[in-house]
Write a structure and sequence with these properties.
Elements (H helix, E strand, L loop, with lengths): L2 H21 L11 H8 L3 H13 L3 E4 L3 E4 L5 H13 L4 H22 L2 H16 L5 H17 L3 H20 L7 H16 L3 H28 L1
Antiparallel strand pairs: 1-2
Helix pairs in contact: 1-3, 2-3, 4-8, 5-7, 5-9, 5-10, 6-7, 6-9, 7-8, 9-10
Length: 234
Amino acid sequence: MSETTRSKQRLSDVVAQTLQDEILGLAVGERLPTEAELAERFEVSRTVVREATRLLVQRGLVTVSPGRGMAVAAVDGSVIAEQYGLLLRLSEGSFEQLMELRLVLELEMAALAAARRTDDHLAELTRLNERLEAADPSTSEFLDADLAFHEQIAQASGNPFFLLVMRPVNDYLSDSYSAGAGYPSEAGHTVQEHLEIAQAIAAGDPARARFAAENHLRRIVRHRATLTSSRQRE
Protein backbone atom coordinates (compact mmCIF):
# COMPACT_ATOMS: atom_id res chain seq x y z
CA MET A 1 0.00 0.00 0.00
CA SER A 2 1.41 3.37 -0.99
CA GLU A 3 2.16 6.15 1.43
CA THR A 4 -0.45 8.29 -0.33
CA THR A 5 -3.14 5.63 0.21
CA ARG A 6 -2.26 5.25 3.89
CA SER A 7 -2.36 9.03 4.31
CA LYS A 8 -5.82 9.23 2.73
CA GLN A 9 -7.06 6.51 5.08
CA ARG A 10 -5.76 8.34 8.11
CA LEU A 11 -7.34 11.59 6.89
CA SER A 12 -10.68 9.90 6.30
CA ASP A 13 -10.57 8.43 9.82
CA VAL A 14 -9.96 11.88 11.27
CA VAL A 15 -12.77 13.43 9.23
CA ALA A 16 -15.15 10.60 10.12
CA GLN A 17 -14.35 10.82 13.83
CA THR A 18 -14.81 14.60 13.88
CA LEU A 19 -18.14 14.34 12.08
CA GLN A 20 -19.22 11.48 14.34
CA ASP A 21 -18.68 13.63 17.43
CA GLU A 22 -20.80 16.36 15.85
CA ILE A 23 -23.52 14.00 14.61
CA LEU A 24 -24.16 12.68 18.12
CA GLY A 25 -25.42 16.15 19.03
CA LEU A 26 -27.72 16.53 16.02
CA ALA A 27 -31.34 15.55 15.46
CA VAL A 28 -32.32 12.55 13.33
CA GLY A 29 -32.84 13.61 9.72
CA GLU A 30 -30.77 16.77 10.00
CA ARG A 31 -28.81 17.46 6.83
CA LEU A 32 -25.02 17.55 6.90
CA PRO A 33 -22.80 19.78 4.73
CA THR A 34 -22.26 18.79 1.13
CA GLU A 35 -19.25 16.86 -0.07
CA ALA A 36 -17.73 20.02 -1.52
CA GLU A 37 -18.33 21.96 1.72
CA LEU A 38 -16.74 19.23 3.81
CA ALA A 39 -13.73 19.02 1.49
CA GLU A 40 -13.23 22.75 1.84
CA ARG A 41 -13.74 22.75 5.59
CA PHE A 42 -11.25 19.93 6.28
CA GLU A 43 -8.92 20.95 3.44
CA VAL A 44 -8.98 17.46 1.98
CA SER A 45 -9.94 15.94 -1.35
CA ARG A 46 -13.44 14.76 -2.17
CA THR A 47 -12.05 11.22 -2.21
CA VAL A 48 -11.19 11.56 1.47
CA VAL A 49 -14.68 12.92 2.22
CA ARG A 50 -16.30 10.01 0.35
CA GLU A 51 -14.27 7.50 2.37
CA ALA A 52 -15.21 9.28 5.62
CA THR A 53 -18.85 9.17 4.53
CA ARG A 54 -18.56 5.44 3.85
CA LEU A 55 -17.24 4.92 7.37
CA LEU A 56 -20.15 6.86 8.87
CA VAL A 57 -22.66 4.86 6.83
CA GLN A 58 -21.05 1.61 8.02
CA ARG A 59 -21.44 2.79 11.62
CA GLY A 60 -25.12 3.46 11.01
CA LEU A 61 -24.75 7.15 11.82
CA VAL A 62 -25.80 8.66 8.49
CA THR A 63 -27.80 7.91 5.40
CA VAL A 64 -26.90 9.07 1.90
CA SER A 65 -29.50 9.59 -0.81
CA PRO A 66 -29.16 10.96 -4.35
CA GLY A 67 -29.97 14.64 -4.56
CA ARG A 68 -30.24 15.04 -0.78
CA GLY A 69 -26.76 14.18 0.35
CA MET A 70 -25.93 13.02 3.83
CA ALA A 71 -28.36 13.13 6.77
CA VAL A 72 -28.27 11.98 10.38
CA ALA A 73 -29.66 8.45 10.77
CA ALA A 74 -31.62 7.02 13.66
CA VAL A 75 -29.08 5.04 15.68
CA ASP A 76 -30.98 1.81 16.34
CA GLY A 77 -28.13 -0.67 16.41
CA SER A 78 -29.29 -2.33 13.18
CA VAL A 79 -25.78 -2.32 11.69
CA ILE A 80 -24.35 -4.03 14.75
CA ALA A 81 -27.27 -6.45 14.80
CA GLU A 82 -26.67 -7.35 11.16
CA GLN A 83 -23.01 -8.08 11.82
CA TYR A 84 -23.89 -10.12 14.90
CA GLY A 85 -26.39 -12.11 12.88
CA LEU A 86 -23.77 -12.87 10.25
CA LEU A 87 -21.35 -14.04 12.93
CA LEU A 88 -24.00 -16.38 14.30
CA ARG A 89 -24.61 -17.86 10.86
CA LEU A 90 -20.89 -18.31 10.15
CA SER A 91 -19.98 -19.75 13.52
CA GLU A 92 -19.50 -23.41 14.30
CA GLY A 93 -21.69 -23.20 17.37
CA SER A 94 -24.54 -25.66 17.93
CA PHE A 95 -28.19 -25.04 18.67
CA GLU A 96 -27.54 -26.14 22.24
CA GLN A 97 -24.77 -23.55 22.60
CA LEU A 98 -27.05 -20.86 21.25
CA MET A 99 -29.64 -21.86 23.85
CA GLU A 100 -26.93 -21.54 26.50
CA LEU A 101 -26.51 -17.95 25.37
CA ARG A 102 -30.26 -17.42 25.62
CA LEU A 103 -30.28 -18.87 29.12
CA VAL A 104 -27.57 -16.48 30.27
CA LEU A 105 -29.33 -13.50 28.74
CA GLU A 106 -33.02 -14.18 29.07
CA LEU A 107 -33.13 -15.18 32.72
CA GLU A 108 -31.77 -11.80 33.74
CA MET A 109 -33.85 -10.05 31.08
CA ALA A 110 -36.98 -11.51 32.62
CA ALA A 111 -35.87 -10.56 36.13
CA LEU A 112 -35.12 -6.99 35.08
CA ALA A 113 -38.41 -6.80 33.18
CA ALA A 114 -40.25 -7.75 36.36
CA ALA A 115 -38.58 -4.86 38.15
CA ARG A 116 -38.86 -2.24 35.40
CA ARG A 117 -41.88 -3.07 33.22
CA THR A 118 -44.47 -0.45 32.41
CA ASP A 119 -48.19 -0.80 31.76
CA ASP A 120 -47.47 -0.56 28.03
CA HIS A 121 -44.98 -3.42 28.26
CA LEU A 122 -47.50 -5.59 30.10
CA ALA A 123 -50.21 -4.80 27.56
CA GLU A 124 -47.91 -5.83 24.71
CA LEU A 125 -46.92 -9.08 26.44
CA THR A 126 -50.61 -9.88 26.86
CA ARG A 127 -51.34 -9.06 23.22
CA LEU A 128 -48.50 -11.30 22.01
CA ASN A 129 -49.63 -14.19 24.21
CA GLU A 130 -53.16 -13.87 22.82
CA ARG A 131 -51.73 -13.84 19.31
CA LEU A 132 -49.64 -16.92 20.13
CA GLU A 133 -52.60 -18.82 21.54
CA ALA A 134 -54.74 -18.02 18.50
CA ALA A 135 -52.11 -18.99 15.93
CA ASP A 136 -51.78 -22.37 14.25
CA PRO A 137 -48.58 -23.90 15.74
CA SER A 138 -47.53 -25.17 12.30
CA THR A 139 -47.42 -21.68 10.78
CA SER A 140 -44.90 -18.85 10.83
CA GLU A 141 -47.47 -16.76 12.72
CA PHE A 142 -46.94 -18.88 15.83
CA LEU A 143 -43.15 -18.67 15.61
CA ASP A 144 -43.27 -14.92 14.97
CA ALA A 145 -45.47 -14.36 18.02
CA ASP A 146 -43.19 -16.57 20.12
CA LEU A 147 -40.01 -14.72 19.21
CA ALA A 148 -41.71 -11.31 19.43
CA PHE A 149 -42.68 -12.15 23.02
CA HIS A 150 -39.03 -12.67 23.93
CA GLU A 151 -38.06 -9.41 22.22
CA GLN A 152 -40.72 -7.61 24.22
CA ILE A 153 -39.19 -8.94 27.44
CA ALA A 154 -35.89 -7.46 26.28
CA GLN A 155 -37.70 -4.19 25.69
CA ALA A 156 -39.30 -4.32 29.13
CA SER A 157 -35.91 -4.90 30.76
CA GLY A 158 -35.12 -1.24 30.14
CA ASN A 159 -31.68 -2.14 28.79
CA PRO A 160 -31.28 -1.39 25.05
CA PHE A 161 -28.31 -3.74 24.75
CA PHE A 162 -30.50 -6.76 25.42
CA LEU A 163 -32.74 -5.92 22.49
CA LEU A 164 -29.71 -5.35 20.30
CA VAL A 165 -28.49 -8.86 21.05
CA MET A 166 -31.87 -10.61 20.96
CA ARG A 167 -33.03 -9.47 17.52
CA PRO A 168 -30.26 -11.16 15.51
CA VAL A 169 -30.50 -14.23 17.75
CA ASN A 170 -34.20 -14.46 16.98
CA ASP A 171 -33.56 -13.99 13.25
CA TYR A 172 -31.08 -16.84 13.40
CA LEU A 173 -33.51 -19.04 15.33
CA SER A 174 -36.26 -18.35 12.82
CA ASP A 175 -34.02 -19.46 9.95
CA SER A 176 -32.74 -22.44 11.93
CA TYR A 177 -36.22 -23.71 12.74
CA SER A 178 -37.29 -23.34 9.12
CA ALA A 179 -34.26 -25.13 7.63
CA GLY A 180 -33.31 -27.57 10.36
CA ALA A 181 -34.99 -30.13 12.58
CA GLY A 182 -38.12 -28.06 12.95
CA TYR A 183 -39.56 -25.73 15.53
CA PRO A 184 -39.36 -27.44 18.94
CA SER A 185 -42.27 -25.57 20.44
CA GLU A 186 -44.72 -28.16 21.82
CA ALA A 187 -47.31 -25.44 21.35
CA GLY A 188 -49.40 -26.10 24.43
CA HIS A 189 -46.36 -25.92 26.71
CA THR A 190 -45.08 -22.77 25.01
CA VAL A 191 -48.38 -20.94 25.45
CA GLN A 192 -48.60 -21.90 29.12
CA GLU A 193 -44.95 -21.08 29.84
CA HIS A 194 -45.21 -17.68 28.17
CA LEU A 195 -48.27 -16.97 30.30
CA GLU A 196 -46.33 -17.88 33.45
CA ILE A 197 -43.44 -15.61 32.46
CA ALA A 198 -45.82 -12.73 31.75
CA GLN A 199 -47.65 -13.24 35.03
CA ALA A 200 -44.39 -13.17 36.98
CA ILE A 201 -43.32 -9.99 35.22
CA ALA A 202 -46.72 -8.41 35.85
CA ALA A 203 -46.46 -9.36 39.54
CA GLY A 204 -43.12 -7.57 39.75
CA ASP A 205 -41.42 -10.72 41.02
CA PRO A 206 -37.88 -11.01 39.54
CA ALA A 207 -37.09 -14.39 41.11
CA ARG A 208 -40.32 -15.91 39.82
CA ALA A 209 -39.78 -14.39 36.38
CA ARG A 210 -36.25 -15.79 36.25
CA PHE A 211 -37.50 -19.25 37.24
CA ALA A 212 -40.31 -19.20 34.66
CA ALA A 213 -37.92 -18.15 31.88
CA GLU A 214 -35.44 -20.89 32.81
CA ASN A 215 -38.17 -23.52 32.92
CA HIS A 216 -39.32 -22.50 29.44
CA LEU A 217 -35.90 -22.45 27.79
CA ARG A 218 -34.66 -25.68 29.35
CA ARG A 219 -37.82 -27.45 28.19
CA ILE A 220 -37.15 -26.21 24.63
CA VAL A 221 -33.63 -27.66 24.78
CA ARG A 222 -34.90 -31.03 26.06
CA HIS A 223 -37.58 -31.25 23.41
CA ARG A 224 -35.20 -30.25 20.62
CA ALA A 225 -32.79 -32.99 21.70
CA THR A 226 -35.60 -35.58 21.72
CA LEU A 227 -36.88 -34.40 18.34
CA THR A 228 -33.43 -34.51 16.74
CA SER A 229 -32.66 -37.93 18.20
CA SER A 230 -35.91 -39.45 16.93
CA ARG A 231 -35.35 -38.08 13.42
CA GLN A 232 -31.82 -39.49 13.34
CA ARG A 233 -33.22 -42.96 14.08
CA GLU A 234 -35.72 -42.75 11.19
